Amino acid sequence: MSGHADEYDKALAKAWQHAGSWLGSVADRPVGPTASVEQVAALVGGALPERGTAPEEVVDLMATAAEPGLMAIGSGRFYGWVMGGTLPAALAADWLVSAWDQNAGMRLATPAISALEETAAAWLLELLGLPESDVGFVTGATMANFSCLAAARTSVLSKVGWDVARHGLTGAPRVRVLVGAERHDTVDLALRYLGLGSPEPVAADEQGRIRVDALAGALQAGAGPTILCLQAGNLHSGAFDPMGQAIELAHRHGAWVHVDGAFGLWAAAAPGLRHLVDGLDQADSWATDAHKTLNVPYDCGVAIVSDRAAMRSALGVHADYLLADASASAQPYETVPELSRRARGVPVWAALRSLGSKGVSDLVEGLVRHAQALAEGIAEVPGAQVLNEVPYTQVCLAFENDERTRAVTRRLLDDRVVWMSGSRWHGREVIRISVSNWTTDDDDVRVSLDALRRAAG
Predict the structure, then answer these.
(1) Minimal CA–CA distance to 116: which of 339, 344, 319?
(2) Judging by beta carbons within 10 Å of its beta carbon (0-12, 13-18, 19+), is residue 295 exposed, middle or buried?
(3) pLDDT for 212-233, tens place per residue?
(4) Tens digit of each residue's pLDDT (9 = 90 or more) over 96-136
């Protein structure tokens, strides 16, 4: 039987050529796209051809047509939506993940993938200072929150004698979910997916941190199975909920504590920032995104649950055709809400192996340092005001009124030298900066501040 490796050669050569061209352009190209959806669609759309096209021609058409419509998310001057770039080792590993095309669901079927992902999981727990836990590699923070909260739902209902796997939610005791008033919307989304309805908001301070006194009152005011969701890294301010106090208080009331740390959980990996998450290890579950602060390719969220039985009960499935592994206590598919998936944990392994613990710490602390440098420079721009304390990687600024803030945002994005996304916080139009890219350096900070001054002028 002849091989087909040569049939891949031309297509992969084209992909390599276009990838190299793209990566070489990111540092200097306009950050924003220069073509619209409609303009790109005019080149790649239309009726499906009756006859096929050579693979290398398909790749060439796709890359050439798409290039003007691409956002330079990997640029050191891209600060939108808490999106990181991609470390070289993680990108190369992701290419191999696609070439190997392994289904990472079953341990015995893909032993190499399981070895890499299990090592990555162990390294993550060590870096973040978390207890022995199950770790699932999911699509992103939304599904990481979903997976952790599914385990929480199973656990808190089990404690009051309700088997949600057997009986569902019909007739079950209502699960109270307490959240900070400024939690991320993906927490609410995950709760909706899980049939738990809207959470009960608890008052937050001016930086978005949950107030412990208000939490104490909320816990006292209700009873029954309870989940508390805390936040490591506020979307606008970067602020962290008071972990130690809130977790201890919630546990006294028998609540499960989940931490949404999409980008902020990584503070635990940096000695200079660990004070922000003091007490974090006492929670019951944690969610984060590796494609944010750790800078691995999309998609890669991480769901971490200390109660392994609860996680496997909530997400696992057993079928005769699935290969069992007597040497392992769990299968990879028991820690994620899917049976078939790509080997998302492999780029995490590559990123961690390439950086080492010191490199991860330097990466996270460097992002914070650049955010603080941006905040210092913004304070000198006429009319600009930094609205948050900047303990981490987020900077929120506004001008004298909403109209001017919107106008500056518009001019800034039209300039395409930098990307800072608009938002609303505390009833004001704001410009939100998320420093998330490993390539951001002092020169990027300088150029970004110059662009902001031009837009403000």
Answers:
(1) 344
(2) buried
(3) 999 999 999 989 999 999 999 9
(4) 999 999 999 888 889 999 999 999 999 999 999 999 999 99
Pairwise CA distance, residues 187 & 388, whole Å: 23
Q: What are phi and psi of 383, to 5 degrees?
A: 90, -10
Q: What angle do CA 194, 200, 202 make, to 5 degrees?
A: 135
CA-based diameter of the chain, in Å? Answer: 72
Which residues share a beta bridge with 139? none
User: In this structure, what DSSP letter does residue 210 have?
Assistant: B
2-34 b/e with 16+ CB inside 10 Å = b? eeeeeeeeebbebbeebeeebeeebeeebbbbe
- Read off the tokens for 334: 């028991």
Omega prior to 299 cis, within 30 of 0:
yes
Distance of alpha carbon 339 from its chain centroid, rounded? 21
The runs of H, that is alpha helices, within 129-252 are 141-158, 164-167, 185-193, 212-221, 243-252
Q: Which single residue is written with the structure tokens 């051809």?
A: 49
Three-state SS at 70: coil
Q: Evaluate if residue 327 carries a pLDDT over 70.
A: no
pLDDT, tens digit, 9 for 90 and up, residues 13-52: 999 999 999 999 999 999 999 999 999 999 999 999 999 9
The three-class DSSP label of residue 229 is strand
Confidence of residue 1 (pLDDT cuts 50, 70, 90): very low
Tell me the whole-structure pTM to 2 decimals.
0.95
Q: What is the DSSP string of 315-346?
A: H----TTSPP-TT-S--GGGSSS-SS---THH
| DSSP H or E segment with residue 374 | helix 345-378
Alpha-carbon span 64 to 86, nearest angstrom: 22
Query: What SS3 state is found at 231?
Result: strand
Hey, what are 152's tokens?
A: 């929480």
Tokens of 434: 């998320």
